[in-house]
Protein: Ribosomal RNA small subunit methyltransferase G
Organism: Alteromonas marina
Amino acid sequence: MTIQQELHTILVSGLDALSLDLSNKQQQQLVDYVLLMDKWNKAYNLTSVRDPKQMMVKHILDSLAIVPFLDGDNIIDVGTGPGLPGMPLAIAFPDKSFTLLDSLGKRVRFMTQCVHTLGLTNVTPVQSRVEEHNGDTPYDIVLSRAFASLKDMLHWCQHLVDSEGQFLALKGQFPQDEIDEVSDHFHVSKTENITVPNLVGERHLVWLKKK
């Protein structure tokens, strides 16, 4: 079995466990994205995960686990790294618009190549520090799985949304202390405990809005 076939098997099993229905084209785009990440990782050090099969679980399925909870059409993924979770979500939601923001040029070059190779029309990679970025219009959702704390995420990103915009953070342990730290200015509108197939450890989604 080729690595491409192995990745496809892991993906199909994960999609079934997540009750997600993606087309053959979308599945192939996700497999190709992992293969691109593996290829570029050797020179660009995009992720500490070296095994493409582990990339499929720890990066792709982990990102896709939030598909059922993603409302809004104009989304920015801040501190996206090589495009996580924004790139897999953009493949899953071709009708939503995704801005993938990172400060490192090598990551943005990789994402730009992915957009071209995978034929994605709803992804805009942007190289910028988050506090210096301003979208053409306020974003519906500011998304992140990489910020160290909710306080940092909210501090650096609050200018990206208006009063209707939401912040959506993907966290490991439930961040009660972090929530308490920002509760004076933001309120939690929702939390969700999610299960990622084949991934050990907790995953929590936290939605926050400005008070």
Remarks:
- The radius of gyration is 16 Å.
